[in-house]
Design a protein that fits this description.
Length: 215
């Protein structure tokens, strides 16, 4: 959806995304310094796909875990940057930056409607101008003076800070989940110290005695 929106608007996101292709089965995203500079790429590409759950990846390979989270932040920054370039405001914290689904919804759904007068303080205070800036429009180029001024007013925390905050948040959630996750099978089996004590032996023994007395 994000790639389709960028293609439709004629916008090139700041962090270059390399889609899967022959001999390259999974997508990756490049750092801002390496993007769109094939001859000057430095550092490792950040993967946008993992085969293991995040908590397990953290325990087994923290280096891969850090690269993946850094990639998520770069992808979230791409979405937030696209929203900002189209007139959306309020993406000024690492929490709002990482709400990728909500930001895409605001861009593609809310931006095509008029914001109601009873909107909350967290909502947009005006309808953004969808298609306001583009890289293929000479009159409203993102790199133009107006575009540069618009993007320069964006008070966003650094991506390093956002990545550190996200890693700490995910780690705290993972630790809390370990305490909350319970196996329901543990409740199906009755422990020995919880079993009722029957005077005279178990039921089957009493039933066998009653049958033998009748015979």
């Amino acid at each position: 959806m994000f790639i389709a929106a960028c293609h439709y608007l004629g916008v090139r996101p700041p962090a270059e995304i390399i889609a899967p292709h022959a001999g390259f089965p999974t997508p990756v995203i490049l750092s801002l310094q390496s993007s769109y500079r094939a001859s000057q790429r430095t550092g490792k590409p950040r993967p946008l796909y993992i085969e293991k759950p995040l908590p397990l990846l953290y325990k087994e390979d923290q280096s891969a875990y850090n690269l993946f989270v850094d990639g998520l932040v770069l992808f979230a920054f791409n979405i937030a940057w696209l929203c900002r370039s189209q007139g959306l405001d309020g993406l000024n914290t690492w929490e709002s930056l990482c709400m990728m689904g909500r930001n895409l919804h605001d861009l593609l759904i809310v931006s095509t409607t008029t914001v109601t007068e009873n909107a909350t303080s967290n909502s947009l205070n005006k309808a953004p101008s969808f298609g306001q800036f583009s890289h293929v429009n000479s009159n409203q180029d993102v790199a133009s003076d107006i575009g540069v001024v618009t993007m320069s007013k964006w008070d966003l925390p650094s991506l390093v800070q956002a990545s550190d905050k996200l890693k700490a948040h995910l780690l705290a959630e993972s630790m809390n989940a370990e305490w909350e996750m319970l196996n329901l099978k543990d409740f199906d089996e009755q422990r020995d110290d919880e079993k009722a004590i029957l005077v005279g032996g178990p039921n089957w023994a009493m039933q066998d005695q009653s049958k033998s007395s009748r015979v």
